[in-house]
Amino acid sequence: MKKYSFIILFIVVAAAGLFWGIGNFKSNVAAVNDSAEEVKIGMNLELTGTFEYYGISVANGALLAFEEINQAGGFNGIKIVPLKVDNVSDPVRSAFLANILAQEGVVSVIGPSISDDFIQTIPAAMRYKIPAVSATATADEITVDRSGNAYDYVFRINFNSSSQADQMVKFALNNLGAKNAVVVRKLNNIYSNGLAQTFMKVFKENGGNIVDLINYTSYETNFEPYLRRIQRENFDIIYLPGYDSEAANFIKQARELGITQPILGGEAYDTPELFEIAGASVLNDVYYTTDFLRSNPDPKVQNFIAAYKEKYGVEPFMDSARGYDSAYFIVDAMKRAGSDDPQAIRDAMASTENFTGVTGTFSMDEEHNPIKTIYIIGLENGIPTQRIVAESTQ
């Protein structure tokens, strides 16, 4: 009897949580929907929780873009209303909110930011036929199913895991002369594992040797046991596709132990936290992939940076730039379609050619990934001093 009582209590608590979420969401929507004529665009992002930096950054960039778009007349004179919700860095809540946003009548959705969260929202995008746009989630399986077919209503404006890992392998082999690599990945994480798997596969196919594969778990901050193990290996580089705080602690501790070999990673390194936690003095021979260059003299980029700093008081990093581009990408598709109908928007997104944003110019391929340039940034004392133009993502 106690078992059944516990189950009933759990169901009641869960239902109460969902209804609270709906009620809270409804009240937030009511606060922003003050126009009879408007177009709603959803933002399902990690505004609190483990990955809040990424979600907040995307949100800030997108909100700045929507503000500019509305000041310029919106969509054919109609106001764009962003509906921003917090998935608390949780895949289950991400899926729940994706359904709620669809029922609220959004014509497209930005986010979530993290691959694990975004993947859980795909069923809602397909069920309601509302295009979902990834600004930052990189997992290959975000835009294609297990058979390799593109999801009709899922798009991405950032490069995927395979593309950036492939380019980093070429950089390691050709620019660093690496022959032996240690790979360090985060267990049960789609982002980290996807990058690691591609890197190892391509590295070995091109004559490289993976001398060790190390797995760590979530929330680890002490990497010394792994680093002691790495010190016993004969290696040229370390490939660590982790998130910013993990990479920062790993790099700091590696340098303190006298490990001087280059450390390579993905675009998740491009955040202020990497520099704040690790400290500039240890960020030498550290390389990561990105598509946003703050040093780009292009007026479009510099105007974005200036506007962002004026609005938020800080300099934008990559995720804010991608959030900004994702908002403009959706509205661009609406304008080319001449409609705010989700199906028409979806069709326009699929046929995108030469869209120019602050993270570069791209066209959309058949798998709904952008064909765009990947850059590899090298750090010296925490300062980006090297910019290597890798090949296009296709």
From TrEMBL:
Quick check: keyword Transport in the entry?
yes
Q: Which Pfam families match?
A: Peripla_BP_6
Q: Keywords assigned by UniProt?
A: Amino-acid transport, Signal, Transport
Q: Which residues cross the membrane?
A: none
Question: In which organism is this protein found?
Answer: Clostridium aminobutyricum
Domain spans labelled Leucine-binding protein: 38-380
- Identification of the protein by name: ABC transporter substrate-binding protein
GO biological-process terms attached to the record: amino acid transport
Looking up InterPro entries in the UniProt record yields: BCAA_transport, Leu-bd, Leu_Ile_Val-bd, Peripla_BP_I
Record's keyword annotation contains Signal = yes
The record's similarity note reads: Belongs to the leucine-binding protein family.
